[in-house]
Amino acid sequence: MKRSEKIRIGVSLLILAVSVTIVIVPLYLVVLNSFKPYSEIAKNISALPKEITLINYQQAWKRLNFSTVFKNTMIIAVFSNIGSIVFAGMMGYWIVRHPCRFTKAWYLIIIAGMSVPFQGIMITFAKMAGFLKLTNHLYGVVISNWVFSMPMSMFLTAGAVKSVPYEIEESARIDGCGPLKTYWTIVFPLIKGTVFTVASLNVITYWNDYLMTQFLLTKKGLRTLQIAMQSLFNEAFFAWDTALGAISLSILPLFIFFIFSQKQVLDGVAAGAVKG
């Protein structure tokens, strides 16, 4: 192996090690200290707990009203993802398979939405949401998520559709399949790796969203996990033991999701890299 190649590999491994450390160390400290009382946290955040306690989780569960906020967040994440996959997938398929000036222009307009940050339009969005009666309804957040996740979801699924040979669809149409049946029975199974990757990215966005849900959901009974956590931090600014328990509870569902779905996510990323 050449010296330059060894240096390149060494630098790559160093960057990877630093990146992993930046992510893992804070997560480790959060989980570690969530099992310790406040006195031990204040004394030494890196020390192992002298006696493991679950009181922080009990307090966080009660003060967050975790069962309610978890249900609200789960409803938003699941239905937002389903709608995003269905609408973005079918639109991406239609644009790719019907190239013309109109579809190309429509594609560029939608993709341009990726360059517009939500913060730049949030005041206009809040007024529009109020006019359309989307506030204080979970379906209002779901519909809004469909709109804002459309550019990236359609961009990725359209790229995956381009890799599917058109001859396969022609054979299906000869057998009498319409556009919808062709997409769901022929094309969709071939791009499911990319679709699953899109769904995983969307889940992270929906689960951790705070800004848009704060605009749309003002009733206490409709709070999502992130809104409830912000409220908890405001009420108990110095209660780090309870706060760390709340953070751990908020991380746990996503952690479980990626434990069971990591194979599909990695397969989707690898498939996209090969097709690209």
UniProtKB/TrEMBL annotation:
SUPFAM superfamilies linked to this entry: MetI-like
Name listed for the protein in its UniProt record: Carbohydrate ABC transporter permease
Similarity remark: Belongs to the binding-protein-dependent transport system permease family.
GO cellular component, one term: plasma membrane
Species for this entry: Hungatella hathewayi
Presence of the UniProt keyword Repeat in the record: no
Every ABC transmembrane type-1 domain range: 70-261
Short name of any one Pfam family annotated for the protein: BPD_transp_1
